[in-house]
Amino acid sequence: MKKTVKLWVLLLLLGQSYAFAQNARVTGKVTGPDNQGLPGVNVQVSGTTTGTSSDAAGNFAINAASTASLVFSNIGYVGQTVPINGRSVINIQMAEDQKTLSEVVVVGYGTQRKVDVTGALTAISTKEFAQQPITRLDQVLQGRAAGVQVTQTNGAPGGDARIRIRGANSVLGSNNPLYVVDGFLGADFNFVNPSDIETIQILKDAASTSIYGSRGANGVVIITTKKGAKGLKVNYEGQFSTSEVIKKYDVLPAGEFAEIVNARSTAVGTGLPFTSDQIAQFKQNGGTDWQSLVFRNGSGQQHQITLSGGGDKTTFLVSGNYLNQNGIVNNSGFKRYNLRTNINTQINDKLSFRLNLWGTQSKNHNTLDGGAIVQALAWAPTTPAYGADGQPTFTDPIGSVYRNPLDYLYDQSVDANRSGLNINGGINYKLPIKGLSVDLQYAVNYLNAQNLNLNGKRLSNNVPTASRYSSEQLTLQNTNNLNYDVKIGDHSINAVAVLETQQFTDRNFTASASGLRFPQLGYDNLGLNTAATVASGYQKWTIFSLLGRVNYGYKDKYLVTAAVRRDGSSKFATGNKYSVFPSVAVGWRLSEEEFIKKLNVFSNLKLRGSWGMTGSQAAPAYSTISTYGTAQVAYNNSAATAGVILGNPGNPDLKWETTKQVDVGLEAEFLNGRLHIEADYFKKNTSDLLLNVAIPSYAGGGTQNRNVGEIENKGFEFSIGGTPLISGSFRWETNLNFSTLQNKVLNLGNYPRLGTGTGVGGGMSTTNEFMLIPGEPLGSYWGLNYLGTWKPGEADAAAKQGRVPGDPHYQDLNGDNTITTDDFQIIGRAFPKATGGWNNTFSYKGLTLNVFFNGVFGVDKLNYTRAAAMSGAGDARQFILSEIRDYNRPGNESSNVPAFTKTYQPFTQSSRFIEDGSFIRLKNVSLSYNVPTSFLKNKANIRVFASATNLLTITKYKGPDPESARVGSGTDSAIGIDYGSYPNAKQYTLGINLGF
Amino acid sequence: MKKLLIIGMAAMLTAGCKGYLEEDTTGLLYGGNVLSTQDGLESALTGAYRGLGNQWTYGFLHPSANAAVLGADDVTTHPASNKADWREFDQFNVSTTNQRSGAVYNGCYKAIQGANNVINNYAKTVGTKATIDIIAGEAFFIRGFSYYWLTRFYGNIPLVTAGEYSADLLTIKKSTPAEVYALIVEDLKKAETMLPNARRDPGRPNAGSAKAFLADVYLTMAGWPLKQTDKYDLAAAKAKEVIDNRATYGFALMPTFAEVFANDPAVAIIPESVFQINGFTGGSGTANATYGNTTMPGEEGGWDDMFAELNFFKNFPAGPRKNATFRTAFGLGATTIPWQQSLTKHPYYQKWYIKGNIVTSSISLPTVMMRYPHVLTVYAEAKARGTGGPDQAAYDALNAVRSRGLSSGAKALTPGDGLTAAQFADAVVQERAWEFACERTRWFDLVRLEQVEAANAAKSPEDLQPIKPITKANYWFTLPYTDTSINPNL
């Protein structure tokens, strides 16, 4: 009885409240501090997804319950929550957000008020990628900042990415930016879990980077990780994905392949490998589609749990992340585990303490280029994948001379395991002088690398081999920072003085065993072998640095920054150890000037310029010394003896590579921040360029590191962003960035030109694929100019070269009727001329749609994957791609696909296989939905999303993926060769975020 | 607290600097004293051998030299397939970037660098003098051997005797064959006195090896390009020295030709081997790829890299040698097809099949750089072309080789057959062609006797032809682009 009464009362109450809460129309006007109408102000009914925004005059209209509250928000203004209290008209005035003005950004060794910044730096906010399925830092950086080029050179999960800030300065050294994570210099970006990132700051010009001296030449990416905040919070993110190959090569079907192989045999007078019966059967039953045996649908998942909280004095954050991806090549994958924790405590008013600790482990399995991918286009479609014994076919009588793609997939393990631990702690103490504080930080970074390889019986010519490489690297860093920050009247001063040391040691060993008696035990039981070798090594380098910087601002209008760093490095000999890197920058905030204020156009307008020097100790440790290496020789048929062999000659005169950079930039903000533009022009000049200069074979071969020459990089960077459309609850935010880059070798000392190679073109390249020539950019392809085939009317000219019509016709530069290396010339450019990104976010109530394009323009690729399958070179004996259908033959003499002759001499290192690698890619499209918090009684946040990566690619490139290439990400003198590189995948992801 | 911090920082400032930037060379091997010990010298000698055998990189453990001598009339390659770099030699169109001849070039110079280092330092090495002399003797042999290969392939070459790198090496000029041969002779003469009679390992030379190569060098010096015909007598005398002392050096002719090419990985060396570069699958880059795949037909899982020229095969005298030299029916199983019905329609070289017909490109077998019958033929030819013409010993030497190759009952040659000295010498050269078919010998005979054009004119029209008329310019390869692009004086 009692229960029923209660129920009735409850229902009645609910009914009443429903009656009270009936929606009514509320109108009003939002004004700014100047009493003018404020357009574009977001007006939302608190706790719902109902929202609108103010029109050009600042007026708005919305339906809301009379008991509800309205939330007003606008960039640069202090948000307000106004209870309706039954009113139908609500006018409010919004105040400028002083916090925005005092917004600080992270710069090297400190922070700065954003408005005071004089250097060129780009911040990437976590908001920009929150809508995308990001697993790695390179995906965060790609396409989002002008002047930053990111290329996913290896499309495998956990694969290599090339990240460049304002181009490449160094030929020998790494051109990777310096990553600074929570103050630790030289962090491995692969280990950074994007979910842990609070802010990313990209330092581009010398004024920003010279504070990093010898390590700043390639730009700096400063990452600050998330810290805990008061109150307990738990957050879970989960993602599930599936992926597939973007495109496959178009390969001849077995029947047609057999016909063409027969046609070629007839033409050169060898026997016919296929009978007409066999061809008929292939036509009927098809053959082997090797690509579909190599590629598969990949899958992946990622889980992240973050727990944060704390009290008034102490906060903490703990996060754990697990990533598991199976690549689109069979039996390849990547796993990563991350644990991060930090504690911050304010011991008293003056003293604070912080500790960051993170551990990570990553495991790559068979994420290789080449191998199976190359062989899939070399093995004949007429050869069955498996033999009668159920094993993969051992040899291919027609196509490849080498191993079955399936053996590359399943008869080898190439595993790279990395375990890292970083402990980074510091104390900060405010000294009795106002504005002066001291900060001491110590960091220990430990990396354990294990490379575990197994080459099974089938892949290894019956000599199964396994090896294990183990390396322990320890980096110790100590940073002592004295900071002074005051504002006296119109003068603001921020100064910093730092003493920093860093020490790196690496101890490693390799054990390898061949003739394994139990190959299935692999690298985990190396002892059971017929022969074993061991090796070990040690490396150490140290840097000792002193640096200082002063920022001075007058009336927040005129800004000057001066910085200097002196670095000493153990890598150079006495006399060349030290170098000094100064910089100076000025800024002028025009928007603070009365004459600009009067225009009432700009909410911010700043002109800035900088000059400075940075360096690179691009040479590896011990380059000043000539050392011996180890080599083995067999004196009988049952053992190998180790001996010593002279290595590359050392160069005691080595010194720092120095980069000078000027930068001019303009920042402008219009319409109260709804539109912002930033433009920069920069010019970098790198001198004392460190190069690997080839030593002739007769002098022992190899290379010597030398300071030779000069390189220039210059370009424009432009970004425009804003909120072009706000209509009711609909909002479109967009950000477009575009940058150009011109790279040029200015001189090479006494050398007219210097070749640089890659070592990836085995069997394809006959000499260095790239040539450095003054006046030409880095990454200039070197080869023969392919003029098509000799045509019937050119029989005489062809005969002079010993050729017949239908044979490949290469430009004979010196006219000696012989095609030699003297006829080599620049045939393409591997460096993109321009890159861009366009990020769009459309939101409507709880729905958010993100559309992100990324583009690379003006770049050539050398497609050796196609060359191998189209020229009877390398391991492939036959032509396998469907484009061979067009081969030059009577009746088809105009074709530029060479004929089948005995005088056929292919040069794969030619313009025939240079392809335009420009592309525009729909990098991400995702749709997410925020479940209304009211629905969850404000106790939780739930977001679900679905996303597609690399959904659409517009390109002329003939390979599966214009982005991937087969050269390590560190080098730039030789990039852009695609020889079976692991392609990027199309990926579809579903995800959920839960927050409590 | 504050004081503590200041003290801490001051401590850092002072402690940080001193010695902090000194390079720590723990674990590095460098400097002049590396070769001051006998172990160091021995290790450097092993490093010198490395130049002669680094599979797929340089030296003679993969078919590099084999491809480079394809201009001779005994071996050819596939007219299509992926053999463009092989065809360059057979068609006399060798590019300066060809990786096959380049592998010989790079390997020989790497060996020379190592040998130079030993030769320039052994006098200062502390240890047992007898052993140090042997080490140095091997180094002299390696250097002479390497320059011999280089000058025969390239003619005028940089002559380097320094081990350590110095910048002036970047601009040195080429030396003439005469200058190069002078050093070769000098080195081999030192080697023959410093080396022991018994080799220390199967893969090392003994005094007999040095003498045998010296005899071969003299024979070559007597022909093109030097044409120092007085060297025929020196060649004959040196070869005779080896023949007379064959037991001392452990050289002997095996009873049957087939046994020579049993190619059993369990046998480290056969008595016919005068000098060899050993292969071992268990080391790093030490396996041998000149057997198996490279000379097998596609029908047997081979690579069709090299096989017999048609007329050479046709003219080859029948007998046990022909049977053991060629593979004329293909198929590893029960059914075989005759070569005429194969895809390439050529007989292949059985010589380089591994025992049990294993299909592989990595095996523990040696690359034999000279066989004892080579010494016999050097004597026979040199004696015939030298003072006094062929003597009975010359006939005996030739017959020993010839009779083993021919069917039993074949008549031995005698002075009574009425051959002139020149005819006898030509008979020896022809005998060498059969005996050492596909053993990187024929090409050098054709070059020194200036018979390259004639031999190629006699090829079957069904074999690959030179793409342009052969001239003396085709007798040598142009120096590799890798080096000419660095040193403008080459």
UniProtKB/TrEMBL annotation, chain A:
Keyword annotations for this protein? Cell outer membrane, Membrane, Signal, TonB box, Transmembrane, Transmembrane beta strand, Transport
> Which PROSITE patterns does the UniProt entry name for this protein?
EF_HAND_1, TONB_DEPENDENT_REC_3
Q: Which residues form the TonB-dependent receptor plug domain?
A: 114-220
- Which Gene3D superfamilies does the record cross-reference, listed alphabetically? Carboxypeptidase-like, regulatory domain (2.60.40.1120), TonB-dependent receptor, beta-barrel domain (2.40.170.20), TonB-dependent receptor, plug domain (2.170.130.10)
Gene Ontology cellular component annotations, sorted alphabetically:
cell outer membrane
TonB-dependent receptor-like beta-barrel domain: residues covered? 382-849
Main localization is membrane
**Which residues fall in a coiled-coil region?**
none
**What membrane topology is given?**
Multi-pass membrane protein
User: Where found?
Assistant: Cell outer membrane
Q: Which Pfam families match?
A: CarbopepD_reg_2, Plug, TonB_dep_Rec_b-barrel
Q: Which family does it belong to?
A: Belongs to the TonB-dependent receptor family.
Protein name, as recorded: TonB-linked outer membrane protein, SusC/RagA family
TrEMBL record, chain B:
What positions does the domain RagB/SusD occupy? 345-456
Q: Which GO terms describe its cellular component?
A: cell outer membrane
Ordered alphabetically, the record's keywords are:
Cell outer membrane, Membrane, Signal
Q: Which PROSITE patterns match?
A: PROKAR_LIPOPROTEIN
Compartments, record wording: Cell outer membrane
CDD domains for the chain:
SusD
Start and end of every SusD-like N-terminal domain? 82-219
Membership in a protein family? Belongs to the SusD family.
Q: List the protein's name.
A: SusD family protein
List the top taxonomic levels of the source.
Bacteria, Pseudomonadati, Bacteroidota, Cytophagia, Cytophagales
